[in-house]
Design goal:
Number of helices: 4
Structural class: alpha+beta
Radius of gyration: 14 Å
Strand content: 35-45%
Distance between the termini: 27 Å
CATH class: Alpha Beta
Number of domains: 1
Shape: globular
Order of helices and strands: HHEEHEEEEHE
Helix content: 25-40%
Length: 133
Amino acid sequence: MTPQEILDLAREHAAAEAENDAERTLATLVDEPTYEFWPMGKGFTGGDLARTFYLEQYPQFAQRVTGYGVLGEWTNDQCAIQEYWVEIDGQTRHMVMSMMPAEGNLLTGEKLYCDDAFVEALLGHLCVHLKPV
């Protein structure tokens, strides 16, 4: 994929998440995506867990999001990076940097650089599935 195609795919992924469209989001990912959270140093891999996240947990997280904005985007021939902020419950603003590597014509998952409180809000009860990376 070209850098622009990777950026377009990352934007499609983010737009599908913002619209809480699980199937559309999952369609941007490989069958067994990997999610890593830094500096926590934990993550998960697997299509079943990603599907559970987008179908069950993400809708709960999305209800708590009271604002967000993209601060910047960068891309090359391997991945796209988006820097953004997310406000949760009208109180806490979290800064996030998401690196989305591509393989073939799909994303292999995300490496998110964010604070632990954001990961806990994002994953909720699924945090028990996190393993050291």
